[in-house]
Design goal:
Helices cover 32% and strands 27% of the residues. A hairpin with a 2-residue loop joins strand 6 (139-150) and strand 7. The strands form two sheets. Strands 1-2-3-4-5-7-6 form a seven-stranded mixed β-sheet. It has helices at 13-26, 39-47, 99-112, 127-135, 168-178, 181-199, and strands at 4-7, 55-60, 63-72, 82-88, 117-123, 139-150, 153-163, 202-204, 212-214. The protein has 234 residues and is an alpha+beta fold. The N and C termini lie far apart (101 Å).
Length: 234
């Protein structure tokens, strides 16, 4: 039977926790977890996953078999256009065949939400996920040596990125909507641009808004009587 994907909600926390528990038991939790979370921890986790950071449940025969999520990549507004993806596949085996489909699905969702980049942090020993990420267009940024502490040892993590095609105009409008100080910033940038264009002899096109054209040049008048005689050399 085909799998279906839906948005996960708070009421699904036990199923999400069950799948995370399966990964922990197998020693391959993506986030290097060694213990399952309590209900209050899941509720706090869901608080960080609003409209722009959705959680998706994958179901088959009415039962959740795995889940995936987009999360904030860094707590700073200049990086609002970057999302971090994660996959939780639960039981080892056939679910791993869903990795590429889920990666492409998360990419589509990220693009629809206005992101310009998706990043992933993958265990260096998870060769299957690394291979699938690369097949889906993810680029290796580098290996973070000893980046995670897992079961009493330091483990390496691979940082990958997938560049999307951003709508820069929509991105600017989103920043203006969510951060009022950007209005003043973009206005000042526009003023500086106009000043530079005018210094270079350009004016706004009266026919095409947003386009600049060369201003008409005034030809200097010839001064009366300003002539000189010239006799070619022999």
């Amino acid at each position: 039977m085909a799998a279906t994907i839906r948005r996960a909600a708070r009421k699904d926390w036990q199923e999400l926790d069950r799948i995370l528990g399966e990964e922990i038991a197998q020693g391959r939790a993506p986030g290097l977890e060694v213990a399952r979370m309590e209900q209050e921890d899941w509720m706090e986790w869901f608080d960080c996953h609003g409209r722009r950071h959705p959680v998706f449940a994958v179901e088959q025969d009415g039962r959740m078999i795995c889940w995936a999520a987009l999360a904030v990549s860094r707590w700073s507004y200049p990086f609002d256009h970057v999302a971090e993806a994660s996959l939780h596949l639960g039981t080892e085996g056939e679910n791993r065949g869903l990795e590429r489909s889920l990666l492409r699905f998360l990419e589509q969702q990220a693009a629809a939400l206005g992101y310009s980049k998706v990043m992933m942090l993958v265990r260096a020993d998870d060769r299957t996920l690394l291979h699938n990420c690369r097949c889906c267009g993810y680029r290796d940024v580098g290996v973070l040596r000893g980046h995670g502490f897992y079961l009493g040892r330091l483990v390496d993590m691979v940082l990958l990125e997938r560049l999307l095609s951003p709508d820069l105009e929509a991105l600017r409008e989103d920043y203006r909507r969510r951060y009022p100080f950007y209005d003043a910033y973009f206005l000042r940038q526009q003023q500086l641009l106009e000043e530079e264009m005018r210094r270079n002899g350009m004016i706004p096109s009266p026919e095409e808004p947003g386009k600049w054209i060369a201003a008409a040049r005034e030809e200097p008048e010839e001064a009366a009587g300003n002539t000189m005689e010239w006799e070619p050399s022999r």
